[in-house]
Amino acid sequence: AQSVTQPDIHITVSEGASLELRCNYSYGATPYLFWYVQSPGQGLQLLLKYFSGDTLVQGIKGFEAEFKRSQSSFNLRKPSVHWSDAAEYFCAVAGTGGGNKLTFGTGTQLKVEL
Amino acid sequence: EAGVAQSPRYKIIEKRQSVAFWCNPISGHATLYWYQQILGQGPKLLIQFQNNGVVDDSQLPKDRFSAERLKGVDSTLKIQPAKLEDSAVYLCASSLGVGDSTEAFFGQGTRLTVV
Questions:
Q1: Mean pLDDT throughout A13-40?
Q2: Is B44 on the interface with A (CB under 8 A)?
Q3: Which of B38, B101, B102 to probe by mutation at the A interface, max A CB count within 10 Å?
Q4: pLDDT for A27-72, tens place per residue?
Q5: Residue A8: which of A106, A113, A111 has the closest Cα?
């Protein structure tokens, strides 16, 4: 069965600092990988996705993520964090042929200090 | 383009009562999902529809939860009777199809509190 681990429950960074959120997945074949962001009281918004091809994926709001098969990782990065980035971030995996059924990690709560 | 609509936004009920949630997906989206998000956890898939047929309901607690999508558009999720552990946010999502590269769009969710 597929699974996702987000080892950091909470992360605090200063505005303008760089950010990296960790995500490790477990899946027997090449997975489809996603990062979603959830602001309080809001639904999930897709930041970026990886299906195939270039392992460095660019997303919205200046985010990027890198797929590393050897490490089973799909870490999310942003070079300079803005106060508005404070939210909860979820990594998710969908199996090939899975009909886009997503398995989510437990999330990382990002706090931005001004 | 209108997004996924859900109602109500909030609901408080007593245990053993029943409750229903409604979802209207994005127009033209054939696939509809219901997820349960318990506080401090990531969303968990409850059921997936393709048009008006069920694709996957393996994680739906069928003794108390039911869902339908009669005309392949709107969907309702019902809990009867509710338990304390059903307190969660119930998210509806839709996508164009079941193709692996199609993106799922999420509604704002219904926050259920069972007291």
A1: 92
A2: yes
A3: B101
A4: 877 788 999 999 987 889 999 999 888 899 999 999 999 999 999 9
A5: A106
Q: Is the Cβ of A51 closer than 8 Å to some Cβ of chain B?
A: yes
AA identity, residue B16: R
Provide, as residue numbers in chain A, all residues whose Cβ is less than 8 Å from the Cβ of B98.
99-100
Q: In sequence order, what DSSP letters do the residues of B66-85 get, joined into one string?
A: EEE-TTSS-EEEEESS--GG
What pLDDT does B7 receive?
97
Q: Which of B41, B44, B95 sits opposite A100 (nearest CB)?
A: B95
Put simply, the answer to whether A104 touches B43 (Cβ < 8 Å) is yes
pLDDT score of B99: 61
Helix %, strand %, coil % of chain A (to 5) = 10, 50, 40
Note whether B32 and B94 are within 8 A (CB).
yes
